[in-house]
Amino acid sequence: MPTTDAYGQGVSIAALTDAPNAATLAQNIADGLAQRGVMRFASASARAATVTSPVEGMESWLQDTNSLEVYDGSAWKAVPYGTQWTSYAVAWTATTTNPSLGNGTLVGQYMKIGTTCHIYIKLVIGSTTNAGSGTYRFSLPFTTATITNSDPGCLVAVFSRATTPNHGTGNSPLGGGWTTTDQIWFPSSTPGDENVWTNTQPWAPATTNVFRIHGTYQTAT
């Protein structure tokens, strides 16, 4: 009759009195070790198709999202593992006419752990930057989550420039299922008032102006 391993992990080990069966011996060892190690899958759907009855404590690596997850008895949960910040190509658009960056600079970075995404965007206006027209938006690295009676996040927006006012802090609330920011609010010249950021409000972007957007939001997947 088979016994189990000395570490109490339930790995079946054939006894000397068992009938010889190399296939059964190998299968018992492989099955026992595989589910107790970090299993690798192409995606969450591939995992669900393979591991139909997950057990609390199982771990898996999802290759499409580069995420480590553990099953807590009711759901797969992301495990922080120190992933690095990753650069992504940010699209800067406007509701009427899209701006063109020219010799300005626009960079974006993110760090994603499970469905939590940290983001940082920096825009520097150049001498040949065309401001376009309309409400400005920036692309996000991942689609936002849809949350009942709540929001997936609210990003912080900051500007700095040489003329007065030379610094200000705004915000950009996010909605569910979005792939870009929507309205970005900055303080106007009237105390307590804010304007949606456009090519003219609160003021026209000028050379060397710096705009930063950063924060954390929940992703759809």
- Give the strand content: 35-45%
Gross morphology = elongated
**Structural class, judged by helices and strands?**
mainly beta
What is the helical fraction, as a range of percent? under 10%
**Main sheet characteristics:** 6 strands, antiparallel
Written account of the structure:
This protein is mainly beta and about 220 residues long. The chain folds into 2 domains: about 5-80, YefM-like fold (3-Layer(aba) Sandwich); about 85-220, Immunoglobulin-like. Helix content is about 10%, strand content about 35%. The chain is built from 2 helices and 16 strands. The strands form 5 sheets. It has a 6-stranded antiparallel sheet, with no helix packed on it. A 4-stranded mixed sheet has the order 3-4-5-6. It is elongated. The two termini are about 45 Å apart. The mean pLDDT is about 90.
Which features would summarize this protein structure in a list?
221 residues; Immunoglobulin-like; 4-stranded mixed beta sheet; mainly beta; YefM-like fold; 2 helices; 2 domains
Topology:
Elements: E1 3-4, E2 12-13, H1 22-34, E3 38-41, H2 44-50, E4 59-62, E5 67-71, E6 76-78, E7 86-88, E8 92-94, E9 105-113, E10 116-124, E11 136-138, E12 153-160, E13 167-174, E14 185-187, E15 194-196, E16 210-218
Parallel strand pairs: 3-4
Antiparallel strand pairs: 1-2, 4-5, 5-6, 7-9, 8-11, 9-10, 10-16, 12-13, 12-16, 14-15
